[in-house]
Every structure is written in structure tokens, then in C-alpha cells.
Specification:
Strand content of chain B: over 45%
Number of strands of chain A: 10
Radius of gyration of chain B: 14 Å
Helix content of chain B: under 10%
Radius of gyration of chain A: 13 Å
Shape of chain A: globular
Largest interface: A-B, 23 and 26 residues
Number of helices of chain A: 0
Shape of chain B: globular
Number of strands of chain B: 12
Structural class of chain A: mainly beta
Oligomer: heterodimer
Order of helices and strands of chain A: EEEEEEEEEE
Structural class of chain B: mainly beta
Largest sheet of chain A: 6 strands, mixed
Order of helices and strands of chain B: EEEEEEEEEEEE
Largest sheet of chain B: 6 strands, mixed
Distance between the termini of chain B: 41 Å
Helix content of chain A: under 10%
Chain lengths: ~120, ~120
């Protein structure tokens, strides 16, 4: 597509449920990134993919968080047993490569609310 | 440890005036990239400008310029001839390599309000 697409745009769920967030990057972009933005805060870097591989998963907040990317395209971020502190906007971005001067193009985010 | 600091939580500027948004960073990696992004109230993140650590010239993109002072580890964004549409949150970010992988950190942002 023309831009990075994220779904759903909003998700409200009960504490303890699992949620799956989807990101469809710009066609041809090999690098894909996940961020979390809590209310009024900056962006917290979670993970990035180069192709289908995630070289470093240490940015994921806990073992309840996992991410995968298949076919070098769509990525899903899964949060298991959600907690209220997981409430945030989850942003996905992609770039042609992860290298230095390549800007990231962001999606509109998924606003996650845990009741 | 790598760090990005934006010390101005909020700024006001009169329309058509220039404004400087501060950003300082800390890294021991000699190779890094610095980015500025704009986030309007609608929420989307928009890339504005990039500066590489080895770039000799300050980056410019239209009304945006980056005042890169490597020795002081600062990468301030200058917006010339401010417009009402420039009102937004502005984030400074740094890309670096650690343990052979890329990472990005963002500052806490500066909210800019352009006054008519």
C-alpha cells in the first residue's frame, strides 16, 4: 500500500485477555519497527525486524510480549495476559533498510485500552 | 548509556518567526544518526530531517534545519518562518548500534504552539 497500515486502530479489552496487533509495512521496506507510546510520553522502542529476523528482542517489556514477521511483510505484535499498564498507543514503522539515513515511515497506531 | 534529552516540554512562537527546539544526546558510538519527527494532534509521526554523525554539513530540508554541534552533542531543530500548521509535538531521536544491532531512542518531546 501507499503507507504503513495498522489494525485495529482501536482495541479495548479486559485485563488478562490476549491481543494481537497487526502492521502492514510499505511495500519493499525490509525494516519494520514496533514502538509503544504511553499517554503524553515519547516513544519506547520495542523491537525491529530486518526481513523476518529480529536481531534483538531485549526492548520487549516482558515475556508477555512477542512479535513475528512472516514473508518479509506483515508483522504481528502479541500481548498475552494483558495488564492495565499495557494501555498505550502501539506504533509501527518501516524503512527501506535499517541503515543510518533511512527515515522511518509510521502508521497511525493502535490505541490499546485495558480495562 | 545512550540518551536523548529534550529539555523544553513546551514552546510558543509567533507566526512567521523562527524557533529552535533543543536536543542533546549521549552516546559512545562514533557512528549514529539523529532524526527529528513531528507529531500533530492527529497522532501520525512525520519525518522531518536527518543528520549523520559523520556529516560535515548541517542538514536542511525546506524550512527545517538541524544545528548539529558534535562536540557539544547537540542537534537542535530550527524552524524558520513558523506557520500555524507547525503546532505539534516534536521528537528528537537517535539511531545507534549496540551489540551489532540497531536501536532507536526518542526524547520526551517538545510541544510547539504557533501563535497567530
Amino acid at each position: 500500500g501507499a503507507g504503513v497500515s495498522q489494525s485495529p486502530s482501536n482495541k479495548v479489552t479486559e485485563k488478562g485477555k490476549d491481543v494481537e496487533l497487526r502492521c502492514d509495512p510499505i511495500s519493499g521496506h525490509t525494516a519494520l519497527y514496533w514502538y509503544r507510546q504511553s499517554l503524553g510520553q515519547g516513544l519506547e522502542f520495542l523491537i525491529y525486524f530486518q526481513g523476518n529476523s529480529a536481531p534483538d528482542k531485549s526492548g520487549l517489556p516482558s515475556d508477555r510480549f512477542s512479535a513475528e514477521r512472516t514473508g518479509g511483510s506483515v508483522s504481528t505484535l502479541t500481548i498475552q495476559r494483558t495488564q492495565q499498564e499495557d494501555s498505550a498507543v502501539y506504533l509501527c514503522a518501516s524503512s527501506q533498510t535499517p541503515h543510518s539515513n533511512q527515515p522511518q515511515h509510521f502508521g497511525d497506531g493502535t490505541r490499546l485500552s485495558i480495562l | 548509556a545512550q540518551k536523548i534529552t529534550q529539555t523544553q516540554p513546551g514552546m510558543f512562537v509567533q507566526e512567521k518567526e523562527a524557533v529552535t527546539l533543543d536536543c542533546t544526546y549521549d552516546t559512545s558510538d562514533p557512528s549514529y544518526g539523529l532524526f527529528w519527527y513531528k507529531q500533530p494532534s492527529s497522532g501520525e509521526m512525520i519525518f522531518l530531517i536527518y543528520q549523520g554523525s559523520y556529516d560535515q554539513q548541517n542538514a536542511t530540508e525546506g524550512r527545517y534545519s538541524l544545528n548539529f554541534q558534535k562536540a557539544r552533542k547537540s542537534a537542535n531543530l530550527v524552524i524558520s518562518a513558523s506557520q500555524l500548521g507547525d503546532s505539534a509535538m516534536y521528537f528528537c531521536a537517535m539511531r545507534f548500534v549496540t551489540s551489532g544491532t540497531y536501536k532507536y531512542i526518542f526524547g520526551t518531546g517538545t510541544r510547539l504552539k504557533v501563535l497567530a
